[in-house]
Amino acid sequence: xxTIDWQQISAAAAHLRAGRLVxxxxxxxxxxxxxxxxxxxxxxxxxxxxxxxxxxxxxxxxTHVAAERLATxxxxxxxxxxxxxxxxxxxxxxxLPECAVSRLATAGLDSIAVRAxxxxxxxxxxxxxxxxxxxxxxxxxxxxxxxRANHVHDGLGNHVAMVLEAASACTVGVESTIVQPxxxxxxxxxxxxxxxxxxxxxxxxxxxxxxxxxxxGAVRAPGMLRAHYAPRAPLRMNVTAPAPDEIxxxxxxxxxxxxxxxxxxxxxxxxxxxxxxxxxxxxxADALCAAGIPDLASTVPxxxxxxxxPALGLGVAINDRLARATLGREN
Length: 331
Known about the structure:
- By secondary structure, the protein is an alpha/beta fold.
- The protein contains nine helices and 14 strands.
- Strand 1 and strand 2 (31-35) form a beta hairpin.
- The longest helix has 21 residues, at 271-291.
């Protein structure tokens, strides 16, 4: 049982109602939360993150009922919300004409991305503020997503009125799966912890994956720009033999011990453990490279190498984040 600090929740809700920004934990990553109905607060989110205005934001709500005030739910969308909310699934749905969310938050689209997060602190805050909250990851745009409060302080400390602490961690560790229900199929716009198999089991319709957009293409939902999640240090993925000056993020019981400095995503080869640890270890490795402190072999780390992760289940989302991290810092 997680103990909620209601005094902190009350203070955070007051900041949000006043148009200020608050960093809140969710089961995926920390979100940079602002009142989604307040255009000035939404603009402050974009400014704090240096996020492109073409990249829409997810509206976070406490319940399915609250989401129905913002979007039109088809029977398929209702089934998905019933199965996975609260949880790490975002639905892209048609906006209701009376939707109160700022057009800036939806990037001027006729659709809206909505999610009910499964974290007791986030749920308490959403219920207390009684507003939809725009809450992209609480990091400078394009950089590593935050899964701990100190990541937020390091990246956006000067832009938030408050960072809500949480005894319970961001247990999923990667951003939500984003899906768009269509007439006869379901389109995955961003992979996450809710996998294709899980979606197919609930909907009994084909599930397709949308190709990642780029700065020239149409962005239909958050998380569709090609480059994101990038550390400052160079990063390589699918590496079995790292260079001596690379920090190696290891995975799997059969992985050979490496001469490089090693941080383990999961020694037992558990993709859920790897996802939960991914961004935190990327932050740690990036800090070691920035510090330039040699290891016992007097080798200064200059880059990050990541062991191969099976592209199955949650491994699809891990590989998606790593692939975008190798492309730059454009999101």
